[in-house]
Amino acid sequence: MLFSSIPFLFYFLPAVLITYFLVPKNCKNAVLLLFSLVFYAWGEPKYVFLMIATICLFFFCGFAIAKSTTQLFRKLWLTVSVVVSLALLAVFKYADFFIESVNAVTGANLTLLRLALPIGISFYTFQCLSYTIDVYRGTAPVQKNIINFGAYVSLFPQLIAGPIVRYVDVAKELDNRTHSLEDFSLGLRRFLVGLGKKILIANQLGALTEIFRQSGEKSVVFYWMYAIAFALHIYFDFSGYSDMAIGLGRIFGFKFIENFNYPYLSKSIAEFWRRWHMSLGSWFRDYVYIPLGGNRVSRWRWVFNILVVWMLTGLWHGAAWNFVLWGLLYAVFLLLEKWVPALQKMPAILRRIYVLLVVVLGFVLFNATSLAEAVSDIGGMFGFGGVPFVNGVTWYYLRSYSILFVAALIGATPLVKTVANKVSQKTVGAVLEPVVLLLLLVLCTAYLVDGSFNPFLYFRF
Amino acid sequence: MNKKIRIVGILALAVIWLGLTAFAWLRSPSELSTSERRPLDQFPELNAETLLDTSFMRKFEEYTLDQFPLRDTFRQIKALFHYNVMGQKDNNDIYVADGYAAKMDYPLNKDSVEHAIKQFNIANRLYLQKNNCKVYATVVPDKSYYLAEESGHLSMDHEAMCRMIAEGMPWATYVDITDALKAEDYYRTDTHWRQEKLLPVAEKLTQAMGVSAFAPESMQISSLDRPFYGVYHGQAALPLAPDTMEIMTNDVLKECIVSNAMGEVLYKGVHDMTKQNALDLYDVFLSGLEEPLVIENPNAKTDKKLVVFRDSFGSSLVPLLARDYAKITLVDIRKTSTQITGLGGVDFQNADVLFMYSALVLNGNYI
Questions:
Q1: What's the whole-model pTM score?
Q2: I need a surface site. Which of A322, B83, B201, B339 has the fewest CB within 10 A?
């Protein structure tokens, strides 16, 4: 089920909120678990059993790690949990990619598994992994109640597109959390802002990228419009979803970590990844990069660590070579930033342009359906392939989408938030805020009623 | 204090949200959308099978979209915001220029046109060659042909489509009617052209076919009482004023007999006035797309026959070609209509044959 859908906004969410706030405190996690499983089953009725099995297994592994008296058994149960989670990803997400690659390299004709990708598997397996690893390290308490643990793993606000919430961050809230009208109102505000980002900006920019793909009359300017539109689209889509997840969490008494911090303002690629999908970056840092030795190793080992982490980051986003290359592209620029200090000494504006250029070109690679398409798209941006500089079709869409582009570019900076915060401190702002939010709800509903199916981009990860 | 105001305000918002939710849950479902001229989805069947194959979920979403309270109002809000605030030049490919709603049908879909030509060639081989038919062809321009350039919208290359049709049907005489029309000759809220404006088109076609059209002074025009909300009115979801529908007849047309393929007489005259209450008022013209239809003209100047391969544009135009034809047969070979191999019952012997499809149909994979 999509957050940006009528069934969610006007059927599921009201039902879960009413039930959640009516039941006594000790039943709230059970309500969340039950509704989360319904939420998941809505899109994947068969895979809900996989999720229940995953919950049971990781609950048991965590329990076993905590109760084991010897280091050997602690390691054994940790290994079981790591192997099972990686096996789940390998089978459901990567098997066909590996088989296709082997077939391509060796000329073999191995049969593809063609399994449907369980929604959110990359998110919930990483959450489960962080739980058993943290219990093993002693940095997180073991959860003794399977309902609470199930609610953590399946919690619908962040189940399918993050942020990747670590158990240690919500452990206390799972067992004992408070609810307040202020949290409810702040959560609702955050949810509606995210909904607006998704429906009013991301979906419209997504429509432009689709128009570009289907157009037979491309131009250099159209290629750039597409590239910039996709970069903004993916930002508003994903950060909008994170806002909705964080907002819903707040309504239910959880304080999820932030996932985005205006990444397009970054002055280096390293900074970009401290601002973009922060929960994933920190997950790879804490559970892959640092265990590999981080930067406290020899120069070449460090290079190896960087390449491994970014290759895995690329692969996490999708089982295809363009995602691997996309990850490695960032590894190369991160290494360059370490080795070429001049990059960091450029004027701030040039550093920002450099980051935006790398990110926009990177997203063209990311969104390509094949490497050939990526080469063609990037070539088109620089006039290769005999495309004209601009044509009538480009002008039409440039004029039609100019306001949206301006709104999206402004929305990608803290300007709106700063102004909103200043205004809301005044009485008129406090009165206007719910009016603006109501307007957002009405507009989003209007777009949904008028529109059709609009899946979130991050579903495929 | 401000915090309290904000909390109260947002709680009020939550109450409005819940109110809309209750409205959505409790209202009895509507059967039909008159603005879109289609039945609305009803609550889907719920059982283990529909749950497991997720068809229930898919249909439930469609049901909630179709049955959402104040659906048309919400669609109008979206359209107004999309145009006026977001500055979009079109809404779901529909735009309004000079008060005329039009579809941005772009680009030219060569595959679709080529497929149509292939079908026309099959018809020629199966029926026309061996029956000594004189064949003519024309393409009805889309309204956007007359609007798009000036309003800055995209439109298909109409001339290229006409060239494709002319070159792909060398056995037919191509008649160009583009200069006999202008934007005002179409309804403001609909795809179709206005019958009362079609005499110049009829003149061009009849001249090419070696017969005569009705004299303008012989025609009587009357308006229908019911306002005409065309198909773009619903699709655009903008507050457009309805059109007035005018129908044209004369003493010859009043005596014409319209019958169906089985020879059953349907009505006298070329307007089916029983369709004045139909979902689509345009159905008044020869009952919409009921076909094959035969118009017999007892007062024809000749005993010539005409067979018209047509879409809905033909319904309003074809009666205006009837002056010299004793019998006109209307057939449609679109995918949803008669199969091309099923025209054995049509009398093609020595007939004039006119292929007349609109650019929208030729470009939209409908044939």
A1: 0.88
A2: B339
